[in-house]
C-alpha cells in the first residue's frame, strides 16, 4: 500500500527539485526527499482536511527548504591576500585615493547615486532618495559607466 502511494506521488519530488533549479546534488536531495515522503505517508492521517497530495507537497517543500538552509557554504580563501596584508593595505589606500579622485569627475547627483548604489539600495529606493524617475537613474548609471571607463582606461 505504501509502495503504491510512493510511486503515485513520486512526481512531487521531481517537481520540487525542478522548482528550485537544482544543478548539483540532485540525486542526494532526491533520495532524502524520497525517504521523507515514505515517513510522511506513514504519518498521514486521512481524517485531516488536507489531501495526501497537498500534505506531501507542503511538507516536502518545507523539508527541502530546511535542507537548503542546513547546507554550509564555504568561501574559498585566497592565501596570497592573507600573507601580504601590508601590501594589500597600501594598495587599498592607493585605490581609495584613485576612487576619491574619480568621484570628483562626477556631478553631485551622480556621486550620491553611486554611493547609494554601492550601499545596496534598489532602483525604487534610489528614485525616492534622489527624487527622480527610474529612467533618470538609468541615465546616471550610463553616464557614470562612461566616465568610469574613460577615467580608468586613460
TrEMBL record:
GO molecular function: DNA binding; DNA-binding transcription factor activity
InterPro entries cross-referenced by the UniProt entry: RNA_pol_sigma-70_dom (IPR014284), RNA_pol_sigma70_r2 (IPR007627), Sig_transdc_resp-reg_C-effctor (IPR016032), Tscrpt_reg_LuxR_C (IPR000792), WH-like_DNA-bd_sf (IPR036388)
Keyword annotations: Transcription, Transcription regulation
Record domain RNA polymerase sigma-70 region: where: 24-70
A GO biological-process term: DNA-templated transcription initiation
Alphabetical list of Gene3D superfamilies matching this protein: Winged helix-like DNA-binding domain superfamily/Winged helix DNA-binding domain
Coiled-coil positions: none
Domain HTH luxR-type: 105-147
Stated name of the protein: Sigma-70 family RNA polymerase sigma factor
SUPFAM superfamilies: C-terminal effector domain of the bipartite response regulators
Amino acid at each position: 500500500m505504501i509502495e503504491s502511494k510512493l510511486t503515485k506521488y513520486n512526481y512531487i519530488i521531481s517537481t520540487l527539485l525542478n522548482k528550485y533549479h537544482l544543478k548539483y546534488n540532485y540525486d542526494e536531495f532526491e533520495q532524502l526527499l524520497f525517504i521523507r515522503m515514505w515517513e510522511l505517508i506513514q504519518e498521514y492521517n486521512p481524517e485531516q482536511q488536507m489531501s495526501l497530495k497537498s500534505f506531501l507537497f507542503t511538507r516536502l517543500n518545507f523539508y527541502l527548504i530546511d535542507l537548503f538552509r542546513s547546507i554550509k557554504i564555504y568561501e574559498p580563501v585566497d592565501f596570497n591576500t592573507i600573507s601580504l596584508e601590508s601590501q594589500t593595505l597600501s594598495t587599498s589606500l592607493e585605490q581609495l585615493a584613485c576612487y576619491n579622485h574619480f568621484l570628483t569627475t562626477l556631478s553631485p547627483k551622480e556621486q550620491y547615486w553611486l554611493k547609494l548604489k554601492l550601499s545596496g539600495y534598489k532602483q525604487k529606493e534610489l528614485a525616492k532618495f534622489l527624487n527622480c524617475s527610474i529612467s533618470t537613474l538609468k541615465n546616471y548609471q550610463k553616464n557614470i559607466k562612461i566616465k568610469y571607463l574613460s577615467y580608468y582606461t586613460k
